[in-house]
Amino acid sequence: MMMGKLExxxxxxxxxxxxxxxxxxxxxxxxxxxxxxxxxxRITPAAVAREAGRSRxxxxxxxxxxxxxxxxxxxxxxxxxxxxxxxxxxxxxxxxLRADARGHAEERRELSSENLTLLHxxxxxxxxxxxxxxxxxxxxxxxVAKGSLA
Length: 150
Prior knowledge:
about 70% helix; single chain
């Protein structure tokens, strides 16, 4: 029996599989842990351990290779990082566009109100003009031709 040699145990292999499966789910954005469902999760050893339902300590003690995989997945330019960043950017743009749409709807209501006011003023002016023209025609003597001097 050799004392210094580390032998992979089925327990260690099972833990490694669960850490790797958890990492893969987080990279795909399909976390199952209640804290991860429907969320953009920053990939960290703690998040991977939480997703795997295991302690973080074995990652540091016996699964250094998985730590390297976690670092690679969390590195800038990694697909998961880019996707998470893109989601955040798109959500911010969506919020800005919704705010713009609300502003445009308010502006449209204000313009409609202004147009209605202008239409009312124009119709009132036309009615006054028509009344003045009727008065002017009624005040003219019948025998006087237009354009002639009396």
